[in-house]
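If I may wish for something, please sit down with the protein I am sending here and say whether tokens and residues agree:
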Amino acid sequence: MTKRSYPLSKVYGILEPGPVVLMTTAHKGKVNVMPLSWHTMIEFEPPLVGCVVSGNDFSFKALTATRQCVLNVPTAELAAQVVGCGNTHGDQVDKFEAFGLTPVKADDMEVPLIAQCYANLACRVVDTRLVNRYNFFVLEVFKAWLDPACKNPQTLHHRGRGVFMVAGEVIRLPSKMK
């Protein structure tokens, strides 16, 4: 087998760990939706998620100020809205209105859920030690919702530069994990 050199600037497309999520934030009466694919599970109970949010994003300012967000998990049917949200700026566009997304009020939060997403994870920032250096936030999921009608969600996985992969066939193998 012959392998060839691969550009380091494209490595993230190989390692993207999970589905693209739509992070919703709210600050000073303004809500925003931002596609996020740079995230990873850190712990299971309580669920901790690490994520990178660019310091140039409107969501970065909101997340830093309010320390809360919702990770909304879309399916492939929302691919156009995901890309549209990523190609616009939250300080200039109401992304809920522009892309036909429905905000849903969550208890005890200013940050809305997105109705069209099959799962919604309410989060609070619990660790910011790596924010100044890497823009890396640690979030604790403190409440979660799932659409029971969505049995086999076809999630989007970002491969870089406008390329996505859709989660495919489900396989089940023996596991000793509970």
